[in-house]
């Protein structure tokens, strides 16, 4: 236990001065889409750099939230920003996969994905991963799980120029998220 504690303290000592401020998460103001509609409600034009429509967490259907939690981070409400069991599982699987030329798996939680998307780069490195872990633990101490999930569901890139679940719902199904059927949510 003493060895693990000393390793943890040394990592904190080394990486803490280089961590970006998490004020960007606290003051999150995404670039939103501007939409121009005709008088009968038909979308004429959407102006945006990233197609994004921000939806508060209490207006996102439960089945949509549960679908993302189920596929991305089953233990979202139980962990403290990182999932230790998932990290060990991924480490063992990836160790085996490297020698068999198989695809590697990840162990990032929803909190880690929010931190990576909003505060860090997509660089694949051990240093970035350590920073991501440390920031995730900090973010879990300043934001509620619902606030973290809200950031995730409104920021995640879902293909077809869609950032967030609301933009994806409109782009893929031409309907708002509260009108999605279960098979569309699963998609």
Q: Specify the biggest β-sheet.
A: 2 strands, antiparallel
Order of helices and strands: HHEEEHHHHHEHH
List unreliable stretches of 5+ residues.
Answer: none
Alpha carbon gap, first and last residue: 44 Å
Fraction in helix: 40-55%
**Broad structural category:** mainly alpha
Q: How big a fraction of the residues is strand? A: 5-15%
The strand line-up of the biggest sheet is 1-2
User: What would the average pLDDT be, to the nearest integer?
Assistant: 86
Q: What value does the Rg take, in angstroms?
A: 19 Å
Count of helical regions: 9
Q: What is the overall shape?
A: globular
Q: What does this protein look like?
A:
With 187 residues, the chain is mostly helical. It has 9 helices and 4 strands. The strands form 2 sheets. The protein has a two-stranded antiparallel ribbon with strand order 1-2. Strands 3-4 form a two-stranded parallel ribbon. Strand 1 and strand 2 form a beta hairpin. The protein is globular.
């Amino acid at each position: 236990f003493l060895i693990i504690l000393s390793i943890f303290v040394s990592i904190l000592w080394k990486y803490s001065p280089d961590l970006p401020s998490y004020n960007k998460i606290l003051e999150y103001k995404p670039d939103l889409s501007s939409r121009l509609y005709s008088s009968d409600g038909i979308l004429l034009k959407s102006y945006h750099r990233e197609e994004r429509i921000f939806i508060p967490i209490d207006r996102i259907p439960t089945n949509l939230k549960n679908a993302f939690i189920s596929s991305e981070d089953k233990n979202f409400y139980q962990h403290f920003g990182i999932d230790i069991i998932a990290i060990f599982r991924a480490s063992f699987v990836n160790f085996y996969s490297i020698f068999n030329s198989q695809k590697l798996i990840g162990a990032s939680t929803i909190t880690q994905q929010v931190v990576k998307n909003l505060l860090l780069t997509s660089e694949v490195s051990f240093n970035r991963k350590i920073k991501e872990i440390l920031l995730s633990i900090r973010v879990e101490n300043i934001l509620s799980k619902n606030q973290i999930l809200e950031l995730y569901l409104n920021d995640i890139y879902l293909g077809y120029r869609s950032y967030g679940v609301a933009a994806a719902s409109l782009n893929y199904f031409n309907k708002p998220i509260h009108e999605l059927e279960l098979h569309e949510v699963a998609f």
